[in-house]
Amino acid sequence: MTLVLGGARSGKSRYAEGLIEAQPGPWRYLATAQGWDDEMRARIAQHRARRPPPWETVDAPRDLASAIRQAPAGRPVLVDCLTLWLTNAMLDEAADLAAEVDGLVEACRAAAGPLVLVSNEVGLSIVPENALARRFRDEAGRLHQRLAAIADRAVLVVAGLPMILKGDPAA
């Protein structure tokens, strides 16, 4: 399992796609984005256009743990992105966010094939001014720490350049 973190437009998704494409296909892409407006729908279309067959896209905006568990054994899986999943859960007012995070972590730990997780590093900026934004930043930071602890590799992508935080740089 590889956790790929980075800021907006850092190159993290392209880097993660390259990690998956280095594995034998077909590849599964678990998409967490939802097209709430025209701009977001255009972003989703742009991402999909970058992934022709043998990519298979599965929409998993909320039940990401199940989507990971349902991936065929041995098939490389890319999750993009965890912070959108967390946003969806928080805006959906998940009854027990901690239990959902626990389920996601366990699904990642038990993944039946190569798994690459993409997420936005949001903890490098100022303290947000409102309670929801502070909670989101805190929840994302805790999620990243838990996943990094069980990951084989953790990578921070800055300006398109991967910085290996954990694991074998040659892998």
TrEMBL record:
It is an enzyme of class 2 (transferase). The keyword Cytoplasm does not apply. It comes from the Bacteria. GO terms for biological process: cobalamin biosynthetic process. GO terms for molecular function: adenosylcobinamide kinase activity; ATP binding; cobinamide phosphate guanylyltransferase activity; GTP binding. Pfam families: CobU. Keywords: ATP-binding, Cobalamin biosynthesis, GTP-binding, Kinase, Nucleotide-binding, Nucleotidyltransferase, Transferase. The keyword Membrane does not apply. PANTHER family: BIFUNCTIONAL ADENOSYLCOBALAMIN BIOSYNTHESIS PROTEIN COBU, PTHR34848. Belongs to the CobU/CobP family. This is Bifunctional adenosylcobalamin biosynthesis protein. It comes from Methylobacterium platani.
